[in-house]
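Protein 1 of 2
SEQ + STRUCT:
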Amino acid sequence: MKCFVIIFLIGCGVVQAQNSLFNSAYKGNLSLEVGMSSNRYAKSSLSMMGNEFSFTLNDATFNQPFEGIPSPNMRDLLSNQYRIAIGYTVKRGVQLQLNLDNFQYQLTNQRLNIDGYVTPGFDVIGGLSGTFNSTSVEMDTIGFRFSSNSTKFISMNLNLLQNLYRTKSRMFVLNAIYGLGLGALHTTSSVTFGPAYQNERSGMSGFAAMAQGGIRVEFLRHFYILPKLSAGILVQNNISLDVSDATQKANQTLWVGQMSLNVGAVFFLGKQKNCDCPHF
C-alpha cells in the first residue's frame, strides 16, 4: 500500500507543477510501476547432483502455489509474486527499465520419471535409493518435495512505446508497450530429500530472458494501468541444496508464461524549454 501512496503523491505534485501538455513517451520521463503476476510453467527436467547422488526428474510438472493473480498480502509482501520496475525514457518512445520480478513454483504431486542413482542409506527422509533408468515413482511414496519459494529475476529491459490513441488534452492515452529483458536469478529453495530436514537455501542461481507486451492505459496524464503478457526462459544452473555441502546443487531450464496487472505513474524530473513536458 505504501508504494501506491508514494506513486500517487509524486504524480499529484507533477500535475500541480505542469504548465504545458505532458507527453508520457517524451525523453527524460521517469516511471514507477508495481504489480502482481500469475505464471504458467512448461514441463521441465530437474537434475540434482552431489557426492552421494546424481539423478534427473524427467518432464516434471511445476506450478505456482495458487490459482490466478493473488491479492497482495501487505503483511508479507515478499511472499507474493510481485513486480517492481523503474523506467527512464532515453529518447521519445524508447525506455530503459530496471525490473524486479518475483516467481514462485513447486514440483506438483505426480508420478516421477527418474534417471540416475542415489547411494543406499543417504536419503533417510524419503528412502530414495538405488539406480534408476526411466523408473516411475510416486512422489507420495518417497516423500520427495522441491519448491522455489522465491526466484527473483533482476533484469534490465529495453521497451518501445507506440501510441495507439490519445485525446487532444491527453487526459486519456493508449500506448502499446513491448520489449525484452535480460538479467540474473536469485533463488530461495527448499527440498525434502537427504539425511535430514534443512532450512531454505538462497543464492544466485542463473540467468533469464523475458519478452513482453501490453497496453498502457493512461489517465490524468500521469497515471496508468498496464495489463501485460510475458514469456521467457529461466536457466537455473546453480540451485543450492545444502548449506553445509557446496557439491550438492540442482539445475533446470524452465519456460514460463506470465500474465501481470500493473499500476504506475510517469513524470518528468528536469527543466526544459519548448517541449511537450511539464516545467518546474
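Protein 2 of 2
SEQ + STRUCT:
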Amino acid sequence: MTNENTLLIVRPANRQAEDLAMCHTAGWQGVAFSPLNIVPLPEQANALKQTLTESDALFWVSPTAVEIAQKLSGSLKTLQTPHIAVGKATYYALKKAGANNIHVNENGNDSEAALTLNIWQTLPESAKIGIIAGENGRSFLQQQLTERGFNVHVCTIYQRQEIPLNWQTFQAAKPRAAWVTSSQQAQLLFAQTPTALTQQVQTLLYFTHHERIRSTLLSCGAQNVFLVKDLQQALNLLNNQ
C-alpha cells in the first residue's frame, strides 16, 4: 500500500532543500532519494578563473554550475561578460550570485531553447564561448556553437558520483509519486532497483520537467509519467486528483 502523500525527490542533495520545503507547504512528505552526488573539482579553480576572464560569453548549464563557480572563483559581480542561462533556475542562480547581463529563454530549459536566443547573433565572429559544466554532460551545445563558427571551451568544475540508494527508506516511505530531474538519475534509479521492488518502482506516478527525461523514464519501465512545468505544478496536479 502506498502513502497517499509521500513523494520521492530524485535529484542531487544540493538541490533538494527547496523541493522538500515546497512539498511540506503543499501538504506532502518529500523524501530525498537520489542516486547521484555532486562533487566540486577544486583543482579546476585556475582553469575556471581563466575561462571567466577570457571568454566573450559564458554559458551556464545549471544552477549547480553557478554555485560551485562562486565557491571556486569568488563573486561574479565584476564580470561584464554576457551570461547565458540554460533555463530559469540557472537565471535566478546567476541573479543571486550578482551576475549582470543575463540572457535566458523564458519558454525553455535546455540547450535547444538557449540556442534560439538573440545574443548569439550579436556576438563577434569566432567569439570565445566558455561553457561552465560538469563532467560527462551533453555535448549538443558545444557542437552546435562550434558549427556556427564560435571558439568553444568547456570548463568542467564538478562531477556526478553514483551513490547507493537506501531501499529501506523507500519501503518505509511507501511513496506514491516521484519527481525526477535528469535522465541519468532516472536510469540509475531503475538500475539500482531490487527485483522484489521492481513493480512498486514501475507503478509510481512520475513527474518531470523535460520530454527527454520523460522518454527515459518510459524506456526504463515507468508506467505513469507526466510532463509538467515544475514541481509546484506536479504537486498541484496530485492535490487535485
